[in-house]
Design brief:
The protein is built from ten helices and 15 strands. By secondary structure, the protein is of the alpha+beta class. The strands form six sheets. Strands 10-11-15-14 form a four-stranded mixed beta sheet. The protein has a three-stranded mixed beta sheet with strand order 1-9-8. A two-stranded antiparallel ribbon has the order 2-7.
């Protein structure tokens, strides 16, 4: 079953701003929350709303979704594993609960996303490619299995926070005595103390490895567009997943083709004789040469369209068009015989029935 459009899920316009998206999410979250909703498949709908909000509330993910749709994440689609929005904060405000609930500070947190640039040539952007890239992979320590401790006996419940990962700090201020919940300084919010660290990961619970992976460059990718590689960002905390790696593409300019969206533009030179008498010429396209008829009397800057000979659209996979701009080239060096022929031709009035010449002559008489 195909995924629904995220904008349809939240019932917002594609140009909706962040306050509108957040408001729509709050409304949908209240409607489909499994604890109160009596609608059929409420839990599935609630997860769908969460996933849509995760993407549309993040500017980089939203830009990627607008470009690639559900084909984002290097062709694997989005998922909501990195959803870092506490629905209880919203839910409690709907149905009461004595104010904002405090999030546990020792909960797993997803690592930060990172971005890298990749340079590709024009042909790779049109037809796609396989590129190698070196990345840092963060994996659970194979020795301690993520605990960070040398052995099970070296992992204790924090004596300061009693495993909650947070402590209450009382302070005297101008407004009286205040109580603030903060991350436990003894265990750094983990709720656990390591008395002896693992010799492999040195207490981190994570092993970092540099490795080379293969990246699939989508057909039709253009400068400024990006793809996401899940799990290759900065490492998470408290057992949370690593962030994602966004690869931003720079496409090297081609000496012949100029790209405008999914369309390509190319200038093709022809001779004065070809423009006057007409001809059939070969026009290069990324998909192979195409035979183009040049009608007699073709003027410089005349544009012809070759349908389907442009760049593929990364979402629809349909090719754009190629626009051929004709450039009539004036010769700079001719033989004496050619000069005589042109002089003889110049004695003939070739300006009759020419709209450009008629307009020019009319303006000169005024």
């Amino acid at each position: 079953m195909s995924k629904r459009d995220y904008y349809d899920v939240l019932d917002v316009d594609k140009n909706a701003d962040q306050p509108a998206i957040k408001s729509a999410f709050r409304k949908m979250a209240k409607q489909y929350h499994p604890d109160v909703s009596k609608e059929e498949n409420a839990e599935a709908k609630f997860k769908e709303v969460q996933e849509a909000y995760e993407v549309l509330s993040d500017s980089s993910k939203r830009q990627q979704y607008d470009t690639f749709g559900h084909q984002a994440n290097n062709g694997q689609g989005f998922n909501s594993s990195g959803f870092d929005f506490d629905i209880n904060d919203i839910f409690s405000s709907f149905f009461g609960g004595g104010g904002r609930q405090q999030r546990p500070t020792n909960r797993p947190r997803k690592g930060q996303d990172i971005q890298r640039r990749m340079n590709i040539v024009f042909e790779e952007s049109i037809f796609g490619a396989k590129k190698k890239i070196k990345v840092t992979s963060h994996e659970e320590c194979h020795t301690c299995h993520g605990s960070g401790a040398f052995s099970r006996d070296d992992l204790k419940t924090c004596t300061k926070c009693q495993g909650s990962g947070s402590v209450i700090v009382e302070q005297q201020s101008l407004f009286g005595r205040t109580r603030t919940q903060t991350s436990c300084p003894q265990c750094n919010g983990k709720g656990k103390e390591v008395t002896k660290k693992c010799t492999t990961c040195h207490g981190e619970g994570i092993e970092s490895h540099n490795k080379e992976i293969e990246v699939s460059v989508p057909k039709g990718i253009d400068t400024g567009q990006q793809i996401r590689l899940e799990g290759y960002g900065n490492k998470g905390s408290n057992g949370g997943p690593s962030g994602d790696l966004y690869i931003l593409f720079d496409v090297k300019k081609h000496p012949l083709y100029e790209r405008h969206g999914d369309d390509l533009v190319v200038e093709v030179p022809i001779t004065f004789t070809q423009a006057t008498l007409g001809d059939h010429i070969k026009v290069p396209t990324p998909h192979g040469d195409v035979k183009l008829k040049i009608p007699a009397g073709t003027q410089s800057q005349t544009t012809f369209r070759l349908r389907g000979k442009g760049a593929p659209n990364v979402r629809t996979r349909r090719n754009g068009d190629q626009h051929v701009i004709i450039k009539v080239v004036t010769p700079t060096s001719i033989t004496k015989n050619q000069q005589k022929m042109l002089e003889q031709l110049g004695k003939t009035d070739l300006t009759k029935n020419s709209m450009i010449w008629d307009k020019f002559k009319k303006a000169m008489k005024q």
